Amino acid sequence: MGANGYVFAIDLNGYVLLHPNLQPQIINFREPVTLDFLDAELEDENKEEIRRSMIDGNDGQRFIKTLIKSLDEQYIDEVFRTYTWAPIKSTNYSLGLVLPPYSTYYIQANLSDQILQVKYFEFLLPNSFESEGHVFIAPREYCKDLDLSDNNTEFLENFIALMEKVTPDSKQCDNFLLHNLILDTGITQQLVEQVWKDQDLNTYSLLAVFAATDGGITRVFPNKAADDWEEEPEPFNASFYRRSLDNKGYIFKPPYRDAGYRGLDLENNTIGILVSTAVELSIEGKSLKPAVVGVKLDLEAWAEKFKVLASNRTDRDQLGTRRCDPSSSCEMDCEANNKDLICVLIDDGGFLVLSNQEDHWYQVGKFFSEVDANLMSALYNNSFYARKESYDFQSVCAPEAPSNTGAAPRGVFVVSTLRDGAFQGPLSVSPVPFMGTCWLTSPSLPIAHCGRSPEPCLVDLGRSLQFLYSLTYSSWFQTEEVVGDGMEARETSCIMKQTQYYFSTVNATYNAIIDCGNCS
């Protein structure tokens, strides 16, 4: 199914029994989680009709354009998906399959040549990392006897030790997973030899180049760049990977900064910005995206480059600079006129990526409204953004001691105050010459909020079976553990309202004088 495909199942009430977004934060809770299909995804008219058809026991298929949240819930993307569903015989449930267009076909490696297997496998050995770049492998169950580990270095050691005892064609191993893993190891190594080693990364102010594949390989070059690599070793669980597949062009991922972040000393710390794009292939007329490639920009160096790239100086204006003010017609020079001009690059989540202001460098990765609320507000008010509200019915909140909780549902504490959270928002920017076009999307201010009233429920065993399923397959709920009943609660279940914005057009421009707020 690939990184963005999944299966789900619902009962006669529309509650999901299986869904990748069914991830309650409180385990050991007294009552089963009831999450409606329309709450597990971003609701729209098409999904309402799909839900109704599944409840009625029909089968069907529909190709739709819809909105999705990124894995880290910091971005909104408009995507195409094919929904296929059918009732499960002798039950009151219906099963659904969701696939993006690029997951209709996939690569199945045929590595029957054992000499080729051994050759490619050697590029997984740590002694090759210094020259070929560091390799992270997705922690998948390649073989029955493989010991899993959260430490990728340890997992790789376990994998290599097992491969010295068995072959990729062993019956105890998943041959499909192993062959694709080894094939991608060889392909990414060839990328190093034929492309990356011929480039001087310092010339382009790059900290690293990388490739992540559907087969589970993430290769980071040079090897020392792996020391600062913070992305998931499983590409399917990496937000940059999944978003790159769903978007054209380049995806920017600045380091995450919460509202309380105070910045790093740039002289002693190097900050990198990930820029990635999907590799799209067409084989015999069939389209697929088997990998994502990208670079890691050196923030300090690229902040200087940005001053030049964002300027629109002509030859006649190179020798001298003119002061730019709202009434003048001088050309924009983000380098020479940085005291008068604020030039910023904002990604498709509304997070600051680059700026010509040095005091902004410590705020890279923050939602732009925290940097310049008036400008962000003006961009939204002038229709640079569309807005989507949704509810997270599986959130946890810090407990408070309310004076009267009589109206609250059993086991659920409804919080009425704002809490800090991740913002998201979009903005239009000009193309950056070296990397391509960038875009924008949305702020999300999580607010504790009461949920919508549930629809009338049909009487069946859905909730009981879902509760039993949650006890049997606890791995579905392995998120942050929270103390449940019978112990002093540290956190409690609550419902969070999220308002997210996304860039509604890539062709809009905006030119106006706005109130800059508390500025001089």
From TrEMBL:
Residues 120-416, 466-520 form the Voltage-dependent calcium channel alpha-2/delta subunit conserved region domain. GO terms for molecular function: voltage-gated calcium channel activity. GO terms for cellular component: voltage-gated calcium channel complex. Coiled coil: none annotated. Signal peptide: none annotated. InterPro entries: Ca_channel_alpha-2/delta, VDCC_a2/dsu. Pfam families: VGCC_alpha2. This is Voltage-dependent calcium channel subunit alpha-2/delta-2. It comes from Lamprotornis superbus. The lineage of its organism: Eukaryota, Metazoa, Chordata, Craniata, Vertebrata.
